[in-house]
Amino acid sequence: MSDPVLEVRNLRVEFPTRHGILTAVDDISLSIGRGEILGVVGESGAGKSMTGMAILGLLEPPGRIAGGEIRLSGDRIDSLDERQMQAIRGRRIGAIFQDPLTSLNPLFRVGDQLVETIRLHSDLSRGAARARAIALMKEVGIPAVEERIDNYPHQFSGGMRQRIVIALALSAEPELIIADEPTTALDVSIQAQITALLKRLCRDRGTAVMLVTHDMGVIAETADRVAVMYAGRLAELGPVDEVVRRPQHPYTSGLMGSIPSLRREVDELQMIPGAMPRLGAIPTGCAFNPRCAHAGPKCRREVPRVAGNDPSGNGAACWLALEGETA
Amino acid sequence: MLAFLIKRTANAVFVMLAVALLAFVIFRFFGDPVEMMVNEQATQADRAELRERLGLNDSFATQYLRFVTNAVQGDFGISYRNQQDVMVLIGDRFPATFELVLVATAISLVVGIPLGVITAVHRNSRLANLLQLGSIVGVSLPSFVVGIMLILAFSVSLGWLPAFGRGETVDIGWWSTGLLTPSGRQALVLPAISLSTFQITLVMRLVRAEMLEVLRSDYVKFARARGVPAPRLHWVHALRNCLMPVITLTGMQIGNLIAFALVTETVFQWPGMGLLFIQAVTFVDIPVMAAYLMLVSFIFVLLNTLVDIAYAWVDPRLRDDTAKAGGANG
């Protein structure tokens, strides 16, 4: 297999605070190939958005990458300075954020924001960039583009705005797109349209996508592989079908059990007892052990890692799955 | 837009009528105009005759109506002190104040906005902290102290710039401008700086506070993710979103400066309205005071309207003609 588009090895993100250093992302390794969609799922505070921001080089200070490496098509990008990173953002890595209502600058016409982005990353003239903006808006499904290109963001609905955000993310034909909760702020009926659109556009272009969401349903529909995160660590990594059908990590199976199904009649949804620990109070050993029904002495002693911490690997960070015992 | 303008104008007229009532009450009932106008040897009959001639025996409403009618035509009567038409007096003085205020406002924006952006973008840096500290000094220094220090430094010690007066002026119609002659421009420098010191710090602190807010917003973060370079991000995307309160402040401050430039005008012996007003107060020159009150209110009302129009210019969401084009969901 050729170089993956994105390869993250042993990434650590830390936030120095008054109460000591908090580790928001702890030793994460993952990779995404060309045209592949990797879903990253987890609860709020599990570190999934933080991982995306670290890859984009947009961590809010004092947050910082404290270890590991990030490679984009083989080039190391975690050690670049702000200026070099600027040249990569938008051009080689596109981003889609959660709230389309606030992602666009309210005082600039959407066409101008598109033209600005296109011209930042190419030598196109104003006219050519505008033609390209129109083509992009058509491609993401905006009706009557010629009339609407000079409208302001507030004149579009949420779903339309997210389409424009997608057009912006794709405008320089990036290798990778980081989509951070792209459908969370939208109506359910529109969520499906937007995920389908994103999937189609990225498949057509061979763009790799990191789809960050807390919605297992979106992942199951859209992603090829999934990374489950818990308390800043990777709990499980693998092909979507496998992880959904045969979750190996007790946390993943808990997650799957808590999804309501239309097909099966369920009296009561399963619930994982307890709550995810705060970053300052992560237990020793496996972060999930206080909530795990199978936890043994080893779980309380040593941190399990997904098999060999191989970015393209499969498996669960669970002693039970790794060694078949928790002694 | 037309409906908006009509509504604004109706508001403005109402406000001006209320102010006119106030000015009229001051004019008519604070002190007796007849006492002010006649000399000490006048007989009781002279006074009664003057009272009748001035229409002071008419009803309150008739007098008010007459005052408003005259005011609309720019007739505020004769100054008690100078025995000159009040409007002519003010017309002589207004350009001086207006030019001073305009230049001071321009300085405060040109200096204050960039300082605000810099202190917000590089917060916690040594430069930003220094500027913040300096701005506290700037806010707390009274403008007459600044003025006197400027005179001391640049007029007395260095002898670079004149310490008082307006220099040579050129008349364009009834407007006399000092901006077209070298001496007029030189004379403007020190008073404009001293008047703008406080404004600069005000604008800077306001822009800084707004910028800190805007820099945290999603669209700034998303613009960074699109690869917008930092200078463009700060000076175009973020700054434009900070301008609303700056426009409001500037509008109000222009009004304030015109009304209260008198301290600076006194220090620099600037022949503006402030000086005229001080003299009017000293001599209880009520027609001048009433006209001054009306003029300043008119400027405030006008600025308020302009500020509202500027809002719509900066923020497309406030233009009513764009509101109708909402898109379909999806």
Write the layout of secondary structure elements.
The complex is a heterodimer of chains A (327) and B (330).
Chain A: E1 6-17, E2 20-32, E3 37-41, H1 48-56, E4 64-72, E5 75-76, H2 82-88, E6 93-96, H3 100-103, H4 110-120, H5 126-139, H6 145-148, H7 158-170, E7 176-180, H8 188-205, E8 208-213, H9 216-222, E9 225-230, E10 233-239, H10 240-245, H11 250-257, H12 297-301, E11 315-316, H13 319-323
Parallel strand pairs in A: 3-8, 3-9, 6-7, 7-8
Antiparallel strand pairs in A: 1-2, 1-4, 4-5, 9-10, 10-11
Chain B: H1 2-29, H2 33-37, H3 44-53, H4 60-72, H5 86-121, H6 126-140, H7 143-157, E1 170-172, E2 175-177, H8 182-215, H9 218-225, H10 230-240, H11 243-260, H12 262-267, H13 273-282, H14 286-314, H15 320-323
Antiparallel strand pairs in B: 1-2
Task: Write a brief caption for the model.
Chain A is α/β, with parallel strands linked by helices and 327 residues long. Helix content of chain A is 34%, strand content 22%.
